[in-house]
Design brief:
Layout: H1 8-23, H2 30-36, H3 41-47, H4 59-72, H5 79-87, H6 97-108, H7 111-134, H8 139-162, H9 169-190
Helix pairs in contact: 1-2, 1-6, 4-5, 4-7, 5-8, 7-8, 8-9
Length: 192
């Protein structure tokens, strides 16, 4: 085993993803992931609680980036624009396109991973909602803004990845927000 190769988390994530793709999530063990990454099981557990977490390691970084960005938005900015401004920080921590595409395929094929992804997204949504409430927004409005913002973020991220990360992420966010507004206006006109 090498004495020091660096990027432990990245190596574990890559090893887990490769093994999940090659032999399936259920047949992959923590020991195999650690071995593929040229690490020990003990090293694995320093970073992750279980093998599912190996594909969700950047979530904490993304949440920290978003919360710091929300705090930096000028006071008085409405909740959804505050979130969209904060979401512009996403490319700083989003993984490369190839990794994200492989990861999405593995998650889609494995219910335990889909469940974990939903749990992670719910936790991120709660943190964003709490940040908006802390800025003075009422909880219901904060929750609605967060739900709408997360839909826009998902759409922008999918488009950004599809464009091989060459797209202007803030422009993709603005475009997604405009589409959301168009849908809302159409829904409003059709509800009467």
């Amino acid at each position: 085993m090498a004495r020091w190769e660096g990027n432990t988390r990245g190596r574990l994530e890559r090893a887990a993803l490769d093994l999940f793709r090659e032999q399936g999530y259920d047949r992959t063990t923590v020991a195999q992931i650690a071995k593929r990454a040229n690490l020990t099981e003990r090293s694995f557990y320093r970073w992750y609680a279980d093998k599912r977490e190996a594909l969700f390691g950047g979530g904490e970084d993304l949440e920290k980036e978003f919360l710091a960005a929300i705090a930096a938005v000028p006071a008085g900015t409405p909740p959804l624009p505050a979130l969209l401004t904060a979401f512009e920080a996403a490319p700083k921590v989003i993984r490369p396109r190839a990794f994200l595409e492989e990861r999405a395929a593995v998650i889609a094929a494995n219910p335990p991973l889909r469940e974990r992804e939903l749990i992670k997204l719910a936790a991120l949504s709660e943190a964003l909602t709490a940040a908006l409430v802390e800025r003075g927004c009422d909880r219901r409005t904060a929750r609605l803004a967060t739900d709408a913002g997360m839909a826009v973020l998902r759409l922008a991220t999918e488009r950004w990845v599809a464009a091989d990360q060459q797209g202007d992420f803030p422009a993709l966010l603005r475009s997604g927000a405009e589409e959301l507004l168009a849908v809302a206006i159409t829904a409003e006109g059709g509800a009467g």
